[in-house]
Amino acid sequence: MIRLAGYQEGKDIEIHFTGLRPGEKLYEELLMNGENTLPTYHKKIMKASVVKMDYTTITSHLELLWNILQTDKNQLSLVTKMKEIVPEYISQNSPYCKLDIQVKEEIIKQQ
Question: Of 40, 55, 83, 106, which has the fewest Cβ atoms less than 10 A away?
Answer without folding.
Answer: 55
